[in-house]
Amino acid sequence: MVNQNPIYVEIPIRAEMDDLWKASQNPDRHEQWDLRFSSITYQPKSHEEDPQEFTYKTNVGLGLSVAGWGRSKGTHDGKDGSRTSSLHFGTDQKISIITEGRGYWKYIPKSDKEMTFLTQYDYQTRFGTPGTWIDKLFFRPMIGWATALSFDVLKRWLEKGVEPKTQHMQFFAYWVLSFFFSFVWIYHGLIPKVLYRHPEEIALAESLLPFSVSAGSVVVCMGIAEILFGLTWWFIKRRRWLYYLQVFAFPVLTVSAIVADPSTLTHPFSPLTFNSGLFLLSVLGLAVSRDVPTAKNCKRKRKESA
Asked: Where does residue 57 fall: left (phi above 0), alpha (psi -120 to 50 degrees), or beta otherwise?
């Protein structure tokens, strides 16, 4: 049996208690910032003190979705002014690895307009031992990351007034562009330079080198440098510097290619149009890379008591 740790996420938020409570307890507002749910629908209650029952749906792509049920109960009787919302949830759909789970949200006031918002939850899985390992290696890290990212989106919504939809678009645009540029640099370093040493690459190097040296060796070195730069997109934290570098580099590379061989302006894939497109995408990446929502702003482990 594989032991699994509960998912825990905590974040400080500069907001009043009622604003945070409404943003997380009102289904129309909750579904806007929480990536784990595409829609949440509250069911009518017979009595005000009854637990709130609801249904939810999560779109997982390719036209598939997971629908489930939930039951929440909020309390306001914390001695420190805190509030707690307990949760019981599950789904009968066989495509979901989750069968049933429980957890809670806690709202802890630090001052009049500063809160600590945290959650802890756990669940049972389907598919026996294989399902347990899939959950441990893939699903649990993913759902924990989605929870933390959603909490940061909520924080920016309440603190800065940035709509969750805008934040989600910024986040995905930022990462799509980052993966795209990583692919472009690795591909153009590996295929035409390192593996095949394309004649046009060697001719370009020969025309630009001011001294006698093996153009083939220079092309390979350039290819390795491009591969390393492409890999940098996966590891560096401050990707804005990479965008700044590209905004400067692509015009220089374009002019160099045209000076080395003016006939490239008549090629089907001219460096003028190709690098211009990459330059504009770099400018776009620079614009969306400022203050991107991130799961790293959340604590992911409960502080152990002394």
From this structure: beta
Q: Residue 28 has which token pair?
A: 């129309």
278: burial class by Cβ within 10 Å (0-12, 13-18, 19+)? buried
Comparing C-alpha atoms, which of 123, 128, 69 is closest to residue 101? 123
Q: Which tokens go with 288?
A: 């969306």
* Residue 217: burial class (beta carbons within 10 Å; 0-12, 13-18, 19+): exposed
Q: Are 89 and 105 in contact (CB under 8 A)?
A: no
Domain made up of 7-162: CATH architecture: 2-Layer Sandwich (3.30)
Chain centroid offset of residue 244 CA: 21
- pLDDT tens figures, 117-156: 999 999 999 999 999 999 999 999 999 999 999 999 999 9
Q: Who's near 96: CB < 8 A, 6+ residues apart?
A: 66, 68, 126
The secondary structure of the chain in percent helix, strand, coil, rounded to multiples of 5, reads: 50, 20, 25
* Per-residue pLDDT tens over the stretch 6-41: 999 999 999 999 999 999 999 999 999 999 999 999
Alpha carbon distance 55, 125 (integer Å): 19
- Domain map of the chain by residue range? 7-162, 170-288
